[in-house]
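HUMAN: I'm a chemist; might I ask for a sequence paired with its structure tokens?

ASSISTANT:
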Amino acid sequence: MTEATFTIDGQTVTAPEGQKLLWAAEAAGIFIPHLCAHPDHDPPFASCRLCFVEIAGRSEPVTACTEPVKDGLIVRTRSDRVDRLVRSGLHLLMSTHDLDCRACPARHRCGLRQIARRRRIGLRSGDPPPASPGLPRDDSHPRLGLDPNRCVLCGLCVWMCEEVVGRGLLHFASRGPSTRVSTFGGLPLVGQCPLDEGCSARCASVCPVGALYLK
């Protein structure tokens, strides 16, 4: 496999040519915010709009989860434009996210908290209150729970259920602001998802914000 050599924030990085920039940076210990990308999911949903970077010679920032590595790239993960985009994207996600972190199953593993901490963006101060209508939490399943008020629509659980586990029980329901992750027909998890502990754990493990969680 051909190797590409390029720079990220002045650091020389070598990675397989064609690998997505996000994973090349992560392997080199360079932080790029992201919620909806997974190294085994290609192409990613690219829905969270947090992994913006600037590449020399490009007029606009690009998403690192979709940008392939090429020899000679000069990449910056921080700039005024990139920081504004990340901040705007994070605040947009938080505008409908339940910010009561004390009751969150993800606790300190929450992707939103980690990004906010790394980029020094307040999760509460100055943020608008959640605009969520207070959707009911599904705790019908003995192993798995779903809280749509914490969901950031990253799509990773839908991908895991459909393409990796091969059951296809979770999907995106409705459209626009009403979009949510649900079982088909909005039926309770206990009537759809199997009681297999390994199956539940695989879907819950990819949720970055504690919306789909193990009990």
In short: The longest strand covers residues 3-8. The two ends are 43 Å apart (CA to CA).
